[in-house]
Specification:
The chain crosses the membrane at residues 12-33. Keywords: Membrane, Transmembrane, Transmembrane helix. The protein folds into two domains: 7-20 and 227-303, Gyrase A, domain 2 (2-Layer Sandwich), CATH 3.30.1360; 25-191, no CATH class. Helix content is 25%, strand content 28%. It has helices at 7-17, 29-32, 71-75, 90-93, 99-102, 105-112, 181-191, 202-205, 255-266, 292-303, and strands at 53-55, 64-65, 82-89, 120-126, 131-136, 141-143, 150-153, 156-160, 169-171, 173-174, 176-179, 215-220, 231-238, 244-251, 274-280, 283-290. The strands form three sheets. The protein has a twelve-stranded antiparallel beta sheet, with helices on both faces. A two-stranded antiparallel ribbon has the order 1-6.
Length: 304
């Protein structure tokens, strides 16, 4: 029986596991949205209420209602130009090494001062440094500042998360939206059919099976993201027997990627790892399965 790996080794594994992308920028909106809101340009509606904790049903107007079970659902609500995106199911991170990186339902509550748990999280980033997030809040309630300012937009009530201190706004629903006012409005435009969601990842995602994943990410090559393919997708799943499966999909991979996969596949059984490789045109799909420690070691080899 393999020994339990230490927290330090878990963190080292995760550093390798996540090294191919810069996705964490998508999850820092709440802390880095430093641009001040120009209150002179805000259209203010009557306050939602003086209570710090409000139920979504107290917010008049339309609420978001969209399927939210994978990164694909998040992209369906994302304006064009996404450079990288991440989806995390916090109901599945508990008890796994990913909990120390992504947190859990309670840490999300603390990070965003919601006063209630968040079970799923999606974040999208753009080349200009902007981004937004989607949060699943099953209790359909959260904390807001007293006398929260509201901006009506196409039948929705966009809530000012910091009452003018920063450009961070919420729209209630399933999922809730949070981000800069311009991006939040862009998501609403898509929901209302007045704009088109991003479609640039459709080809690579046609080969993905994201349902049931703890974590999913997608990224494209830009001036600031050095990845060995035009686009790259990855997810991680924990199986019923306690083992893990990691799926990596490359669109237009560099030749060395396929060469490396072929070389390590040849003797993978000696390391206790199962390989399943599929090539379809310009797409290479790699699925590796093993216990967590062996998956860590294999990811280290593949990332060299």
């Amino acid at each position: 029986m393999k020994q339990k790996i230490s927290a330090t080794k878990n963190q080292k594994y995760l550093a390798i596991f996540l090294a191919a992308t810069m996705f964490l920028s998508a999850f820092l909106i709440y802390f880095t949205a430093s641009s001040k809101t120009d209150s002179n340009n805000d259209t203010l509606a009557p306050e939602v209420g003086n209570q710090s904790l409000i139920f979504f049903s107290q917010v008049p107007g339309k609420h978001v209602l969209h399927e939210f079970n994978s990164i694909i659902n998040g992209l369906e609500m994302s304006p064009d130009g996404v450079t990288n995106a991440v989806y995390v199911d916090f109901q599945k991170t508990k008890g796994t090494p990913l909990e120390s990186i992504f947190g859990n339902m309670q840490t999300m509550n603390t990070s965003f001062s919601y006063g209630t748990d968040v079970t799923k999280r999606y974040g999208a980033s753009y080349a200009n440094g902007s981004g937004f997030e989607l949060h699943e809040i099953p209790e359909l309630k959260f904390n807001v500042p007293a006398n929260t300012r509201v901006m009506p937009y196409d039948g929705y009530q966009i809530l000012d998360r910091t009452n003018g201190t920063y450009n961070i706004w919420n729209v209630v629903g399933s999922p809730a939206i949070i981000g800069p006012i311009q991006t939040v409005a862009g998501v609403i435009d898509i929901l209302e059919g007045n704009a088109t969601a991003t479609t640039e990842y459709n080809q690579i995602l046609s080969q993905a099976e994201p349902e049931g994943s703890i974590f999913q990410e997608i990224v494209k090559r830009t001036n600031t993201s050095d990845i060995p393919a035009k686009e790259y997708y990855r997810d991680l799943k924990k199986l019923d027997d306690g083992s893990y499966t990691q799926t990596s999909i490359y669109l237009d991979p560099e030749p060395e990627i396929n060469e490396k996969i072929k070389a390590y596949q040849a003797n993978s059984s000696e390391r206790g790892v199962t390989y399943n490789v599929t090539t379809l045109g310009n797409i290479t799909k790699l699925v590796i399965s093993s216990d967590f420690e062996s998956l860590y070691n294999e990811s280290a080899l593949l990332s060299k």
